[in-house]
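Q: Hi! Curious about what UDP-glucose 6-dehydrogenase looks like structurally. Here's the sequence.
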Amino acid sequence: MVKICCIGAGYVGGPTMAVIALKCPSIEVAVVDISVSRINAWNSDQLPIYEPGLDGVVKECRGRNLFFSTDVEKHVSEADIVFVSVNTPTKTRGLGAGKAADLTYWESAARMIADVSKSDKIVVEKSTVPVKTAEAIEKILTHNSKGIKFQILSNPEFLAEGTAIKDLFNPDRVLIGGRETPEGQKAISTLKAVYAHWVPEDRILTTNLWSAELSKLAANAFLAQRISSVNAISALCEATGANVSQVAYSVGTDSRIGPKFLNASVGFGGSCFQKDILNLVYICECNGLPEVAEYWKQVIKINDYQKNRFVNRVVASMFNTVSNKKIAVLGFAFKKDTGDTRETPAIDVCKGLLGDKARLSIYDPQVSEDQIQRDLTLSKFEWDHPTHLQPMSPTTVKQVSVVWDAYEATKEAHAVCILTEWDEFKTLDYQRIYDNMQKPAFIFDGRNVVDVDKLRDIGFIVFSIGKPLDPWLKDMPAVA
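A: Let's find out. The predicted structure is below.
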């Protein structure tokens, strides 16, 4: 029986290995992590991450050919294929701080693999890693190999959170990069055979190592660029009275462009987009390409601008102050159908409002109070380090209360900010919300989920990203 071990039981490792176990019943899959609480959660009825469809897949395979364990060395030692899916946070100090990926966890994983291996292994990069990481890992393994042979493959993930299981069942492509040597090609074939259990062969792409690593960064950069492009246009729409939804629809019907990732919003988030673009910027700078680096930096700048613009719009509309005003925040996760808050625009928006002394009442159906408080107190990039290396009990932000009901959040509020596009926010009883709010009652829709005309008929003053401005807002311009 082929044995696979994945180091790292997070958003990538857990779902990916669960689907491999489901689709390949003849393969034994172990997911290992040093976090006892995380492994306990994977072995319980309350999984550590929320992802539609994941629960059923895990429960069908767990204990049969899918195992979650903290015995990292045992499972790595026994495996034929070792996936490494550990954190690659952005460096906070030293060379490349604020841009380069921190490979500390990757390096320690590689050294541990070399230490405990008693047989030849295929080591697969599954984390998002900078180009040339494979070469560094290869050197560590080779210099510590004690005669054991290792082949390094790059197999980047292209999952979208919220649809990860669907994406894994039916991927656009599976990308495998390896050395262009007989041993490298054999390793590629071995991993390809795993995916071929359910992925059509023409969707399994093989490249050299560097192309696979760069393809991941490039794909995320291109997607983020589309969001920043439509968000830049949304600012112009508000200034001119155009409707960004109509503009985006018109642009998206061009077959050369297509409609995906053209939804204007308060900004993009998630664990990958910003990190990967910063990584790309750093690689460009290191390779003497400052103009290319500057081009990709602009994607991040527009994203930051969009979040700042939203906060300024809220403050300017409410008589230029939100001091001591209750503001309801609906949604904290970076997108619907996930509990992930990494780089969510909600963090910067909330911090901006707190900076003007607002009182926040936050509701998100999948994000806990502890997580929200942690996110609002951690420094930039700290979130991407393993939980046990983060501050144990972050200070509570006293101006923030977290509630478990949208109506409780909005009661007596001066304004509502919608920051995640959860489906339930489309069908709330907005008349009831209006009746229980301070007047004038404002709604700032950062995800374009509400029916603007209907809300204006109720009596709300509504701001919706990239939509023609409410007359009230025209009189109170937001200074960016």
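A: A fun detail: The domain at 3-199 is CATH 3.40.50.720 (Rossmann fold).
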